[in-house]
Protein backbone atom coordinates (compact mmCIF):
# COMPACT_ATOMS: atom_id res chain seq x y z
CA UNK A 1 0.00 0.00 0.00
CA UNK A 2 2.84 2.38 0.94
CA UNK A 3 4.65 1.62 -2.29
CA UNK A 4 1.47 2.34 -4.24
CA UNK A 5 1.07 5.74 -2.55
CA UNK A 6 4.72 6.59 -3.23
CA UNK A 7 4.28 5.65 -6.87
CA UNK A 8 1.23 7.91 -7.11
CA UNK A 9 3.15 10.79 -5.53
CA UNK A 10 6.03 10.20 -7.92
CA UNK A 11 3.66 10.22 -10.87
CA UNK A 12 2.09 13.43 -9.62
CA UNK A 13 5.51 15.04 -9.25
CA UNK A 14 6.49 13.98 -12.75
CA UNK A 15 3.24 15.37 -14.16
CA UNK A 16 3.73 18.62 -12.20
CA UNK A 17 7.32 18.86 -13.41
CA UNK A 18 6.28 18.32 -17.04
CA UNK A 19 3.49 20.90 -16.62
CA UNK A 20 5.95 23.48 -15.23
CA UNK A 21 8.48 22.72 -17.96
CA UNK A 22 5.78 23.09 -20.59
CA UNK A 23 4.71 26.43 -19.16
CA UNK A 24 8.34 27.57 -18.86
CA UNK A 25 9.02 26.54 -22.47
CA UNK A 26 5.89 28.38 -23.59
CA UNK A 27 7.01 31.46 -21.67
CA UNK A 28 10.51 31.34 -23.16
CA UNK A 29 9.08 31.00 -26.66
CA UNK A 30 6.68 33.88 -25.94
CA UNK A 31 9.51 36.11 -24.67
CA UNK A 32 11.65 35.20 -27.69
CA UNK A 33 8.85 36.00 -30.13
CA UNK A 34 8.03 39.25 -28.34
CA UNK A 35 11.72 40.19 -28.38
CA UNK A 36 11.92 39.53 -32.13
CA UNK A 37 8.67 41.43 -32.66
CA UNK A 38 10.01 44.35 -30.59
CA UNK A 39 13.19 44.51 -32.70
CA UNK A 40 11.17 44.35 -35.92
CA UNK A 41 8.66 46.96 -34.72
CA UNK A 42 11.42 49.36 -33.65
CA UNK A 43 13.31 49.05 -36.93
CA UNK A 44 10.14 49.53 -38.99
CA UNK A 45 9.46 52.72 -37.03
CA UNK A 46 12.88 54.05 -38.08
CA UNK A 47 11.69 54.05 -41.70
CA UNK A 48 8.18 55.34 -41.05
CA UNK A 49 7.44 58.85 -42.33
CA UNK A 50 5.44 60.77 -39.73
CA UNK A 51 2.83 63.29 -40.95
CA UNK A 52 3.55 66.97 -40.33
CA UNK A 53 0.49 67.32 -38.10
CA UNK A 54 1.82 64.62 -35.76
CA UNK A 55 5.33 66.11 -35.75
CA UNK A 56 3.84 69.42 -34.64
CA UNK A 57 2.01 67.64 -31.84
CA UNK A 58 5.33 66.16 -30.72
CA UNK A 59 6.84 69.65 -30.64
CA UNK A 60 4.02 70.95 -28.46
CA UNK A 61 4.25 67.86 -26.26
CA UNK A 62 8.00 68.46 -25.78
CA UNK A 63 7.65 72.11 -24.81
CA UNK A 64 4.78 71.40 -22.42
CA UNK A 65 6.77 68.69 -20.64
CA UNK A 66 9.77 71.00 -20.34
CA UNK A 67 7.63 73.73 -18.79
CA UNK A 68 6.05 71.22 -16.43
CA UNK A 69 9.20 69.51 -15.14
CA UNK A 70 12.34 71.58 -15.81
CA UNK A 71 12.97 73.76 -12.71
CA UNK A 72 15.07 76.43 -14.45
CA UNK A 73 13.99 76.35 -18.10
CA UNK A 74 14.68 80.03 -18.79
CA UNK A 75 18.02 80.21 -16.97
CA UNK A 76 20.10 80.80 -20.10
CA UNK A 77 17.45 81.72 -22.68
CA UNK A 78 14.45 84.03 -22.38
CA UNK A 79 10.93 82.68 -22.62
CA UNK A 80 10.32 84.90 -25.64
CA UNK A 81 13.33 83.49 -27.50
CA UNK A 82 12.46 79.89 -26.70
CA UNK A 83 8.81 80.41 -27.68
CA UNK A 84 10.02 81.80 -31.00
CA UNK A 85 12.32 78.82 -31.64
CA UNK A 86 9.59 76.25 -31.02
CA UNK A 87 7.07 78.22 -33.12
CA UNK A 88 9.61 78.65 -35.94
CA UNK A 89 10.29 74.94 -36.03
CA UNK A 90 6.60 74.15 -36.33
CA UNK A 91 6.23 76.69 -39.14
CA UNK A 92 9.24 75.27 -41.02
CA UNK A 93 7.88 71.72 -41.21
CA UNK A 94 6.52 71.08 -44.70
CA UNK A 95 7.01 67.36 -45.36
CA UNK A 96 6.65 64.12 -43.40
CA UNK A 97 9.85 62.88 -41.74
CA UNK A 98 11.27 59.73 -40.25
CA UNK A 99 11.84 59.88 -36.48
CA UNK A 100 15.56 60.54 -36.81
CA UNK A 101 15.12 63.13 -39.56
CA UNK A 102 12.82 64.89 -37.11
CA UNK A 103 15.45 64.40 -34.38
CA UNK A 104 17.94 66.51 -36.32
CA UNK A 105 15.33 69.30 -36.54
CA UNK A 106 14.11 69.29 -32.93
CA UNK A 107 17.41 68.57 -31.17
CA UNK A 108 19.03 71.97 -32.00
CA UNK A 109 16.03 73.73 -30.42
CA UNK A 110 16.54 71.68 -27.24
CA UNK A 111 20.25 72.51 -27.37
CA UNK A 112 19.46 76.25 -27.56
CA UNK A 113 18.20 76.05 -23.95
CA UNK A 114 21.93 75.84 -23.13
CA UNK A 115 21.59 73.35 -20.31
CA UNK A 116 24.23 70.67 -20.83
CA UNK A 117 22.30 67.77 -19.31
CA UNK A 118 19.27 68.38 -21.54
CA UNK A 119 19.71 66.35 -24.71
CA UNK A 120 17.17 64.73 -27.00
CA UNK A 121 17.84 61.07 -27.85
CA UNK A 122 17.38 59.62 -31.30
CA UNK A 123 15.99 56.18 -32.08
CA UNK A 124 18.66 53.50 -32.41
CA UNK A 125 18.43 50.49 -34.66
CA UNK A 126 17.94 47.33 -32.62
CA UNK A 127 19.54 43.99 -33.32
CA UNK A 128 18.48 40.40 -32.81
CA UNK A 129 20.32 38.18 -30.33
CA UNK A 130 22.09 36.47 -33.23
CA UNK A 131 23.27 39.82 -34.60
CA UNK A 132 24.39 40.97 -31.15
CA UNK A 133 26.39 37.75 -30.73
CA UNK A 134 28.07 38.30 -34.10
CA UNK A 135 29.04 41.86 -33.14
CA UNK A 136 30.36 40.65 -29.79
CA UNK A 137 32.76 38.30 -31.56
CA UNK A 138 34.20 41.14 -33.62
CA UNK A 139 36.22 44.22 -32.76
CA UNK A 140 34.46 47.59 -33.01
CA UNK A 141 35.12 49.03 -36.46
CA UNK A 142 36.40 52.43 -35.39
CA UNK A 143 38.35 51.25 -32.32
CA UNK A 144 41.38 50.36 -34.43
CA UNK A 145 42.48 54.00 -34.08
CA UNK A 146 41.99 57.01 -31.80
CA UNK A 147 40.59 60.15 -33.37
CA UNK A 148 40.52 63.85 -32.54
CA UNK A 149 37.93 66.35 -33.70
CA UNK A 150 39.58 69.77 -34.02
CA UNK A 151 37.24 72.57 -35.08
CA UNK A 152 35.47 71.08 -38.12
CA UNK A 153 38.16 68.53 -38.98
CA UNK A 154 38.87 64.93 -37.94
CA UNK A 155 42.39 63.60 -37.41
CA UNK A 156 44.00 60.30 -36.46
CA UNK A 157 45.50 60.76 -33.02
CA UNK A 158 46.83 57.23 -32.58
CA UNK A 159 47.05 54.22 -34.88
CA UNK A 160 47.04 51.44 -32.28
CA UNK A 161 47.79 48.56 -34.62
CA UNK A 162 49.48 50.38 -37.50
CA UNK A 163 46.46 49.84 -39.72
CA UNK A 164 47.33 50.68 -43.34
CA UNK A 165 50.40 52.55 -42.05
CA UNK A 166 48.26 55.60 -41.30
CA UNK A 167 50.32 58.20 -39.45
CA UNK A 168 49.40 60.40 -36.50
CA UNK A 169 48.05 63.69 -37.84
CA UNK A 170 46.42 62.15 -40.92
CA UNK A 171 43.19 64.00 -41.66
CA UNK A 172 40.05 62.06 -42.54
CA UNK A 173 38.25 64.06 -45.23
CA UNK A 174 35.40 61.69 -46.05
CA UNK A 175 33.78 58.54 -44.66
CA UNK A 176 32.09 56.43 -47.35
CA UNK A 177 32.00 59.49 -49.57
CA UNK A 178 30.41 61.81 -46.99
CA UNK A 179 32.21 65.02 -46.14
CA UNK A 180 33.45 64.83 -42.54
CA UNK A 181 33.36 68.60 -42.00
CA UNK A 182 29.67 68.67 -42.93
CA UNK A 183 28.97 65.84 -40.50
CA UNK A 184 30.81 67.62 -37.69
CA UNK A 185 28.83 70.82 -38.30
CA UNK A 186 25.61 68.82 -38.32
CA UNK A 187 26.41 67.05 -35.05
CA UNK A 188 27.70 70.19 -33.36
CA UNK A 189 24.19 71.67 -33.45
CA UNK A 190 22.95 68.83 -31.23
CA UNK A 191 25.26 69.66 -28.32
CA UNK A 192 24.97 72.40 -25.74
CA UNK A 193 26.95 73.27 -22.66
CA UNK A 194 25.85 75.20 -19.58
CA UNK A 195 25.16 78.86 -20.35
CA UNK A 196 27.96 80.79 -22.04
CA UNK A 197 30.57 78.09 -21.50
CA UNK A 198 32.73 77.46 -24.59
CA UNK A 199 35.05 74.67 -23.42
CA UNK A 200 32.66 71.69 -23.14
CA UNK A 201 31.46 71.19 -26.69
CA UNK A 202 34.82 70.28 -28.23
CA UNK A 203 35.36 67.49 -25.70
CA UNK A 204 31.85 66.09 -25.94
CA UNK A 205 31.82 66.24 -29.74
CA UNK A 206 35.15 64.43 -29.77
CA UNK A 207 33.59 61.66 -27.65
CA UNK A 208 30.29 61.58 -29.50
CA UNK A 209 31.19 62.06 -33.19
CA UNK A 210 31.52 58.37 -34.07
CA UNK A 211 28.52 57.53 -31.88
CA UNK A 212 26.40 59.97 -33.89
CA UNK A 213 27.77 58.51 -37.12
CA UNK A 214 26.95 54.96 -36.00
CA UNK A 215 23.50 56.11 -34.92
CA UNK A 216 22.81 57.30 -38.47
CA UNK A 217 24.49 54.47 -40.37
CA UNK A 218 24.16 51.50 -38.03
CA UNK A 219 26.94 49.03 -37.25
CA UNK A 220 29.03 48.76 -40.41
CA UNK A 221 31.43 45.96 -41.29
CA UNK A 222 33.68 48.25 -43.33
CA UNK A 223 34.15 51.85 -44.42
CA UNK A 224 36.29 53.69 -46.94
CA UNK A 225 38.15 56.71 -45.58
CA UNK A 226 39.44 59.48 -47.79
CA UNK A 227 42.59 60.67 -46.02
CA UNK A 228 45.08 63.47 -46.37
CA UNK A 229 48.68 63.52 -45.15
CA UNK A 230 51.50 65.74 -46.42
CA UNK A 231 49.06 67.11 -49.03
CA UNK A 232 48.59 63.63 -50.47
CA UNK A 233 45.04 62.32 -50.69
CA UNK A 234 44.38 58.58 -50.54
CA UNK A 235 41.45 56.22 -50.09
CA UNK A 236 41.88 53.71 -47.27
CA UNK A 237 39.44 50.89 -46.49
CA UNK A 238 39.17 49.53 -42.96
CA UNK A 239 37.24 46.41 -42.04
CA UNK A 240 35.76 45.10 -38.82
CA UNK A 241 38.08 42.33 -37.64
CA UNK A 242 36.97 39.11 -35.97
CA UNK A 243 38.39 38.58 -32.50
CA UNK A 244 41.04 35.91 -32.18
CA UNK A 245 40.43 32.78 -30.10
CA UNK A 246 42.82 34.23 -27.53
CA UNK A 247 40.83 37.49 -27.32
CA UNK A 248 37.56 35.59 -26.90
CA UNK A 249 39.06 33.54 -24.06
CA UNK A 250 40.49 36.71 -22.48
CA UNK A 251 37.05 38.37 -22.62
CA UNK A 252 35.58 35.50 -20.60
CA UNK A 253 38.42 35.49 -18.06
CA UNK A 254 38.21 39.25 -17.57
CA UNK A 255 34.58 39.01 -16.55
CA UNK A 256 35.94 38.10 -13.12
CA UNK A 257 36.98 41.20 -11.17
CA UNK A 258 39.04 41.02 -8.00
CA UNK A 259 37.96 42.68 -4.74
CA UNK A 260 40.71 45.30 -5.13
CA UNK A 261 39.64 46.05 -8.70
CA UNK A 262 36.05 46.50 -7.55
CA UNK A 263 37.11 49.18 -5.06
CA UNK A 264 38.90 51.02 -7.86
CA UNK A 265 35.81 50.51 -10.05
CA UNK A 266 37.58 48.52 -12.76
CA UNK A 267 35.95 48.63 -16.20
CA UNK A 268 36.22 45.29 -18.00
CA UNK A 269 35.55 46.67 -21.49
CA UNK A 270 38.15 49.45 -21.47
CA UNK A 271 40.48 47.54 -19.11
CA UNK A 272 40.98 50.71 -17.07
CA UNK A 273 40.35 51.85 -13.50
CA UNK A 274 37.78 54.53 -12.79
CA UNK A 275 39.61 55.55 -9.60
CA UNK A 276 43.33 55.36 -9.02
CA UNK A 277 45.79 56.53 -6.38
CA UNK A 278 49.54 56.82 -6.15
CA UNK A 279 52.38 58.83 -4.65
CA UNK A 280 54.18 60.81 -7.33
CA UNK A 281 57.46 61.38 -5.50
CA UNK A 282 59.69 58.76 -3.89
CA UNK A 283 59.35 60.47 -0.51
CA UNK A 284 55.51 60.16 -0.71
CA UNK A 285 55.17 63.92 -0.20
CA UNK A 286 52.78 64.30 -3.17
CA UNK A 287 49.63 62.17 -3.33
CA UNK A 288 47.71 61.88 -6.60
CA UNK A 289 44.08 60.77 -7.01
CA UNK A 290 42.50 60.37 -10.44
CA UNK A 291 38.71 59.97 -10.72
CA UNK A 292 37.28 59.47 -14.21
CA UNK A 293 33.64 59.53 -13.16
CA UNK A 294 31.83 59.76 -9.84
CA UNK A 295 30.14 56.38 -10.20
CA UNK A 296 29.56 55.86 -6.43
CA UNK A 297 30.52 52.16 -6.80
CA UNK A 298 32.36 51.33 -3.54
CA UNK A 299 33.44 54.99 -3.37
CA UNK A 300 33.32 55.21 0.42
CA UNK A 301 35.68 52.26 0.78
CA UNK A 302 38.11 53.62 -1.82
CA UNK A 303 38.37 57.05 -0.16
CA UNK A 304 38.62 55.56 3.32
CA UNK A 305 41.53 53.32 2.33
CA UNK A 306 43.19 56.01 0.22
CA UNK A 307 43.15 58.75 2.83
CA UNK A 308 44.38 56.34 5.49
CA UNK A 309 47.44 55.74 3.29
CA UNK A 310 47.89 59.47 2.74
CA UNK A 311 47.63 60.16 6.47
CA UNK A 312 50.28 57.56 7.34
CA UNK A 313 52.57 58.91 4.62
CA UNK A 314 52.40 62.44 6.02
CA UNK A 315 52.06 63.82 2.48
CA UNK A 316 52.12 67.60 2.21
CA UNK A 317 50.39 67.91 -1.17
CA UNK A 318 47.38 66.31 -2.80
CA UNK A 319 46.55 66.49 -6.50
CA UNK A 320 42.94 65.65 -7.37
CA UNK A 321 42.66 65.06 -11.11
CA UNK A 322 39.07 65.29 -12.37
CA UNK A 323 39.84 66.24 -15.95
CA UNK A 324 37.52 64.48 -18.42
CA UNK A 325 35.22 63.58 -15.50
CA UNK A 326 31.68 64.13 -16.76
CA UNK A 327 30.17 63.93 -13.28
CA UNK A 328 27.95 61.40 -11.56
CA UNK A 329 26.99 60.80 -7.95
CA UNK A 330 26.35 63.64 -5.50
CA UNK A 331 26.83 61.16 -2.70
CA UNK A 332 30.36 60.39 -3.86
CA UNK A 333 31.50 64.00 -4.12
CA UNK A 334 29.98 64.66 -0.69
CA UNK A 335 32.06 61.78 0.70
CA UNK A 336 35.18 63.01 -1.12
CA UNK A 337 34.70 66.56 0.16
CA UNK A 338 34.53 65.26 3.74
CA UNK A 339 38.17 64.14 3.31
CA UNK A 340 39.25 67.56 2.00
CA UNK A 341 38.02 69.89 4.74
CA UNK A 342 38.51 70.34 8.48
CA UNK A 343 35.10 71.82 9.27
CA UNK A 344 31.46 70.85 9.03
CA UNK A 345 30.02 71.71 5.62
CA UNK A 346 26.94 71.65 3.41
CA UNK A 347 27.95 70.75 -0.12
CA UNK A 348 24.84 71.81 -2.05
CA UNK A 349 21.78 73.91 -1.39
CA UNK A 350 18.47 72.08 -1.04
CA UNK A 351 17.46 71.13 -4.62
CA UNK A 352 14.48 72.93 -6.16
CA UNK A 353 11.66 71.40 -8.24
CA UNK A 354 8.68 72.68 -10.21
CA UNK A 355 6.09 70.99 -7.97
CA UNK A 356 5.71 68.84 -4.88
CA UNK A 357 5.17 65.75 -7.02
CA UNK A 358 8.04 66.29 -9.49
CA UNK A 359 10.36 63.72 -7.95
CA UNK A 360 7.60 61.10 -8.18
CA UNK A 361 7.97 61.23 -11.98
CA UNK A 362 11.56 59.99 -12.06
CA UNK A 363 12.28 56.86 -14.06
CA UNK A 364 11.59 54.08 -11.58
CA UNK A 365 11.00 51.31 -14.13
CA UNK A 366 13.11 52.56 -17.05
CA UNK A 367 15.93 50.26 -18.10
CA UNK A 368 14.56 47.28 -16.16
CA UNK A 369 13.75 43.91 -17.71
CA UNK A 370 10.19 42.63 -17.96
CA UNK A 371 10.63 40.30 -14.97
CA UNK A 372 12.45 42.85 -12.80
CA UNK A 373 9.63 45.33 -13.44
CA UNK A 374 7.15 42.82 -12.05
CA UNK A 375 9.41 42.21 -9.05
CA UNK A 376 9.99 45.87 -8.13
CA UNK A 377 6.36 46.86 -8.79
CA UNK A 378 5.63 45.73 -5.23
CA UNK A 379 7.83 48.53 -3.87
CA UNK A 380 6.54 51.22 -6.25
CA UNK A 381 3.88 52.60 -3.84
CA UNK A 382 6.57 53.02 -1.17
CA UNK A 383 8.78 54.81 -3.71
CA UNK A 384 5.98 57.26 -4.52
CA UNK A 385 5.15 57.86 -0.85
CA UNK A 386 8.81 58.34 0.07
CA UNK A 387 9.39 60.91 -2.67
CA UNK A 388 6.22 62.77 -1.77
CA UNK A 389 7.19 63.09 1.90
CA UNK A 390 10.75 64.10 0.97
CA UNK A 391 9.31 67.09 -0.87
CA UNK A 392 8.30 70.37 0.74
CA UNK A 393 7.11 73.87 -0.09
CA UNK A 394 8.53 77.13 1.20
CA UNK A 395 8.10 80.70 -0.06
CA UNK A 396 6.19 79.47 -3.13
CA UNK A 397 9.06 77.15 -4.10
CA UNK A 398 9.27 73.36 -3.93
CA UNK A 399 12.27 71.55 -2.49
CA UNK A 400 13.58 68.00 -2.30
CA UNK A 401 15.56 66.68 0.64
CA UNK A 402 18.93 65.51 -0.62
CA UNK A 403 21.67 63.85 1.43
CA UNK A 404 24.33 66.25 0.13
CA UNK A 405 22.27 69.27 1.23
CA UNK A 406 22.55 68.31 4.90
CA UNK A 407 25.44 69.26 7.23
CA UNK A 408 28.30 66.77 7.01
CA UNK A 409 31.22 66.47 9.39
CA UNK A 410 34.79 66.06 8.11
CA UNK A 411 36.42 62.65 8.38
CA UNK A 412 38.92 62.07 11.19
CA UNK A 413 41.70 61.46 8.66
CA UNK A 414 40.81 64.35 6.33
CA UNK A 415 43.75 65.79 4.41
CA UNK A 416 45.14 69.01 5.90
CA UNK A 417 47.81 69.94 3.37
CA UNK A 418 47.82 71.86 0.09
CA UNK A 419 45.30 70.69 -2.53
CA UNK A 420 45.40 71.15 -6.30
CA UNK A 421 42.37 70.26 -8.43
CA UNK A 422 43.00 69.66 -12.14
CA UNK A 423 40.06 70.47 -14.45
CA UNK A 424 39.28 70.97 -18.12
CA UNK A 425 36.29 71.51 -20.40
CA UNK A 426 35.18 67.90 -19.90
CA UNK A 427 34.91 68.39 -16.13
CA UNK A 428 31.15 68.49 -15.99
CA UNK A 429 28.17 68.25 -13.62
CA UNK A 430 29.31 66.85 -10.22
CA UNK A 431 32.93 67.67 -11.13
CA UNK A 432 31.98 71.32 -11.45
CA UNK A 433 29.96 71.26 -8.22
CA UNK A 434 32.89 70.06 -6.09
CA UNK A 435 35.34 72.35 -7.92
CA UNK A 436 33.10 75.39 -7.33
CA UNK A 437 32.77 74.55 -3.63
CA UNK A 438 36.51 73.97 -3.13
CA UNK A 439 37.35 77.20 -4.93
CA UNK A 440 34.76 79.25 -3.03
CA UNK A 441 35.99 77.95 0.33
CA UNK A 442 39.60 78.62 -0.77
CA UNK A 443 40.37 75.03 0.14
CA UNK A 444 42.07 74.17 -3.16
CA UNK A 445 43.87 75.77 -6.09
CA UNK A 446 41.91 75.00 -9.24
CA UNK A 447 44.28 74.53 -12.19
CA UNK A 448 43.60 74.05 -15.90
CA UNK A 449 40.76 75.03 -18.21
CA UNK A 450 37.30 76.43 -17.44
CA UNK A 451 35.04 73.53 -16.51
CA UNK A 452 32.33 72.46 -18.93
CA UNK A 453 29.76 72.40 -16.13
CA UNK A 454 28.43 75.65 -14.68
CA UNK A 455 29.92 77.27 -11.58
CA UNK A 456 26.48 78.11 -10.20
CA UNK A 457 24.85 74.70 -10.52
CA UNK A 458 22.97 72.45 -12.88
CA UNK A 459 19.62 70.76 -13.47
CA UNK A 460 20.14 67.05 -12.98
CA UNK A 461 20.03 64.65 -10.03
CA UNK A 462 17.13 62.49 -11.20
CA UNK A 463 15.23 62.71 -14.46
CA UNK A 464 11.92 61.97 -16.08
CA UNK A 465 12.45 60.51 -19.55
CA UNK A 466 9.43 61.45 -21.61
CA UNK A 467 8.72 59.63 -24.88
CA UNK A 468 7.36 61.78 -27.68
CA UNK A 469 4.04 60.12 -28.67
CA UNK A 470 4.45 59.96 -32.46
CA UNK A 471 8.20 59.99 -33.21
CA UNK A 472 9.02 57.96 -30.07
CA UNK A 473 12.12 60.07 -29.46
CA UNK A 474 13.21 60.19 -25.82
CA UNK A 475 13.89 63.34 -23.80
CA UNK A 476 15.33 62.94 -20.28
CA UNK A 477 14.37 66.05 -18.29
CA UNK A 478 16.27 66.81 -15.09
CA UNK A 479 13.91 67.29 -12.16
CA UNK A 480 16.21 68.92 -9.60
CA UNK A 481 18.01 72.26 -9.62
CA UNK A 482 21.27 71.40 -7.85
CA UNK A 483 23.49 74.31 -6.83
CA UNK A 484 26.70 74.29 -4.80
CA UNK A 485 26.42 75.92 -1.38
CA UNK A 486 28.30 79.09 -2.35
CA UNK A 487 27.59 82.70 -3.30
CA UNK A 488 26.85 82.67 -7.03
CA UNK A 489 28.79 84.76 -9.53
CA UNK A 490 25.87 84.79 -12.04
CA UNK A 491 28.26 84.85 -14.98
CA UNK A 492 26.68 81.84 -16.72
CA UNK A 493 30.16 80.31 -17.04
CA UNK A 494 31.97 77.23 -15.81
CA UNK A 495 34.31 77.21 -12.81
CA UNK A 496 37.12 79.57 -13.77
CA UNK A 497 40.43 78.11 -12.50
CA UNK A 498 42.67 80.03 -10.12
CA UNK A 499 45.43 79.24 -12.59
CA UNK A 500 44.26 79.01 -16.20
CA UNK A 501 46.31 76.78 -18.50
CA UNK A 502 45.51 76.14 -22.15
CA UNK A 503 45.70 72.35 -22.67
CA UNK A 504 46.33 72.89 -26.40
CA UNK A 505 43.47 70.60 -27.36
CA UNK A 506 44.31 70.55 -31.05
CA UNK A 507 47.96 69.52 -30.63
CA UNK A 508 48.19 65.87 -31.71
CA UNK A 509 51.92 65.31 -31.26
CA UNK A 510 52.92 67.14 -28.05
CA UNK A 511 52.39 64.70 -25.19
CA UNK A 512 53.50 67.04 -22.40
CA UNK A 513 50.87 67.49 -19.69
CA UNK A 514 51.10 71.27 -19.25
CA UNK A 515 48.61 71.39 -16.38
CA UNK A 516 50.41 68.71 -14.40
CA UNK A 517 53.78 70.32 -15.14
CA UNK A 518 52.62 73.65 -13.70
CA UNK A 519 51.46 71.94 -10.49
CA UNK A 520 54.71 70.01 -10.03
CA UNK A 521 56.76 73.18 -10.70
CA UNK A 522 54.67 75.03 -8.11
CA UNK A 523 55.20 72.26 -5.55
CA UNK A 524 58.94 72.29 -6.20
CA UNK A 525 59.02 76.07 -5.77
CA UNK A 526 57.08 75.95 -2.51
CA UNK A 527 59.18 73.20 -0.98
CA UNK A 528 62.40 74.88 -2.08
CA UNK A 529 61.64 77.88 0.13
CA UNK A 530 61.57 76.17 3.50
CA UNK A 531 61.62 72.48 2.68
CA UNK A 532 58.04 72.26 3.95
CA UNK A 533 54.59 72.83 2.57
CA UNK A 534 53.72 76.48 1.91
CA UNK A 535 49.93 76.86 1.63
TrEMBL record:
SMART domains: TSPc. Keywords: Hydrolase, Membrane, Protease, Transmembrane, Transmembrane helix. Gene3D superfamilies: 2-enoyl-CoA Hydratase, Chain A, domain 1 (3.90.226.10). InterPro entries: ClpP/crotonase-like_dom_sf, Tail-specific_protease. GO terms for biological process: proteolysis; signal transduction. The chain crosses the membrane at residues 6-33, 370-390. GO terms for cellular component: outer membrane-bounded periplasmic space. One of its GO terms (molecular function) is serine-type peptidase activity. This is C-terminal processing protease CtpA/Prc, contains a PDZ domain. Pfam families: Peptidase_S41. Residues 256-502 form the Tail specific protease domain.
